[in-house]
Amino acid sequence: MLSGVLLLGTVIFIMGVAYRDVNSKVERRRTEIMLQAERCKEKFELNTCERSGKIRALEAVCEELMVCMKRDPYLVSGETGEVDRRR
After folding, report:
1. Does residue 32 lie within any of the structural domains?
2. Where do runs of H (alpha helix) occur along the chain?
3. Do residues 65 and 47 touch, judged by C-beta distance below 8 A?
4. Is residue 19 a part of any domain in this protein?
5. Count: domains in the chain
6. What angle do CA 86, 38, 55 make, to 5 degrees?
7. pTM of the model
8. From the CA atom positions of the chain, what is the Rg in Å?
9. Helix/strand/coil for 50
10. From CA 71, how far away is CA 75, in angstroms rounded?
11. With a cut of 70, which residues of the chain have pLDDT below it?
12. Alpha carbon of 23 to those of 4, 28, 38, 80: distances in Å?
């Protein structure tokens, strides 16, 4: 009986540690995505991508910056962190 309680306590403790570890990593990744999106926004504005008369050579760069800016930090399900476009 006592060994069962100890085993259960140990399992619960390990699950708690694992949960906190995963939460910490997700929060760190979320912060990284938000900082990266902010840097992309600064570059987007610096390259005047929002203007309709943007430079043709920058179209691909502007498109990449737009995707980067729109990444949702709350969709941290994979390494890409891309926005789920099915919504």
Report:
1. yes
2. 2-46, 59-69
3. yes
4. no
5. 1
6. 85
7. 0.68
8. 21
9. coil
10. 8
11. 52-54, 76-87
12. 28, 9, 23, 18
